[in-house]
Design goal:
- The protein is 41% helix and 24% strand.
- It is α/β, with parallel strands linked by helices and 280 residues long.
- The chain folds into 2 domains: 130 residues, Rossmann fold, CATH 3.40.50.10860; 139 residues, Rossmann fold (3-Layer(aba) Sandwich).
- The chain has a 6-stranded mixed β-sheet, sandwiched between helices.
- The longest helix has 16 residues.
- The structure holds 2'-monophosphoadenosine-5'-diphosphate (ATR).
- The site of 2'-monophosphoadenosine-5'-diphosphate (ATR) has 16 residues, from helix 6.
């Protein structure tokens, strides 16, 4: 064990993760000393891997697919966001205890409002999907008080269950919160967010183009090849397309802030990451 504070991202798969690079840049730019690695965890080995990492002096983890729900369950304490989402992407390990938080939604909101320059208050928002990715961002989206938020999903019952869990919050923000089946949206929206894994299974864009209006912002929570079909579809229909790279960096920035008490320069690191990933 070294004296350097250790962090890691745990997932399966995890080799593709950009988190080690992002956190290394955050640390360099804020003058923090830490070590952040990627740990491939066996599908039935998450609890043991987490225990081992904590026992070895680990200070915090990011959690990615497919362990976000298990991470929320295993934690000793949970933020309100985790309680609502049932999933955690950030663990703080301290004094032998595990605290779970979820920064995915904060990252998405920051990327939409600051990165794309679109305030969500008073807007009409469509969230496509009702799995873990959608659940993780719904409460932070609602907290920005959009006028209307529709959750639409191939399996409508899942959208209904997700909406049901967030009705009290929607009342507070005076947001009209509804659940729809994927062919059902009959109106258009200011902001459309794709939180499905449709592209990974070879599926197309899961909603009709009528949800877009000229100048809408269409965001995919993925980046790279899996996001491309959705982004091309949005652009072809006159919308502004935005991939999930900004959300990735912003959620990492929120995790870094939780762990280190310092807010890193997310916009700068996003620009660097885009340059790094740009085709030569
Ligand atoms: P994640 O944690 O990535 O959200 P998940 O919980 O398995 O993963 O959820 C995947 C989401 O993508 C769900 O909303 C799923 O729709 P269903 O609830 O109907 O399964 C959606 N999805 C996956 N493949 C899809 C496809 N081909 N067309 C439309 N939606 C799809």
């Amino acid at each position: 064990m070294t004296g350097t504070d250790r962090y890691c991202v745990m997932g399966h798969p995890v080799g593709h993760s950009r988190s080690p690079w992002i956190h290394a840049r955050f640390a360099a730019l804020t003058g923090q000393t830490l070590d952040y690695g990627a740990q491939l965890v066996a599908l039935d080995g998450f609890a043991a891997a987490l225990r081992d990492f904590a026992n070895a002096g680990g200070r915090g983890c990011n959690i990615t697919v497919p362990f976000k729900h298990e991470a929320a369950r295993l934690a000793d304490t949970r933020s309100e966001r985790v309680a609502q989402a049932g999933a955690a992407n950030t663990l703080v390990l301290a004094h032998g205890r595990i605290h779970a938080d979820n920064t995915d939604g904060l990252g998405l909101v920051a990327d939409i409002e600051q990165g794309a320059g679109v305030p969500l208050a008073g807007r009409d928002v469509l969230l496509i999907g009702a799995g873990g990715a959608a659940a993780g961002v719904l409460a932070p989206l609602l907290a920005r008080a959009p006028r209307r938020l529709a959750v639409c999903n191939r399996t409508q019952a899942r959208a209904e269950a997700l909406v049901e869990r967030h009705l009290a919050l929607a009342m507070l923000t005076k947001t009209e919160l509804t659940a729809l089946g994927q062919q059902a949206p009959e109106t258009d929206f200011d902001v459309i967010i794709n939180a499905t894994s449709s592209s990974l299974s070879g599926g197309g864009v899961p909603v009709p183009a009528s949800v877009l209006r000229p100048g809408s912002l269409a965001c995919d929570m993925m980046y790279g090849a899996p996001a491309q079909g959705f982004l091309d579809w949005a652009t072809q229909h006159g919308a502004h397309a935005r991939d999930g790279l900004g959300m990735l960096v912003q959620q990492a920035a929120e995790s870094f802030l939780l762990w280190r008490g310092v807010r890193p320069p997310a916009e700068q690191v996003l620009a660097e990451l885009r340059a790094l990933l740009a085709p030569a």
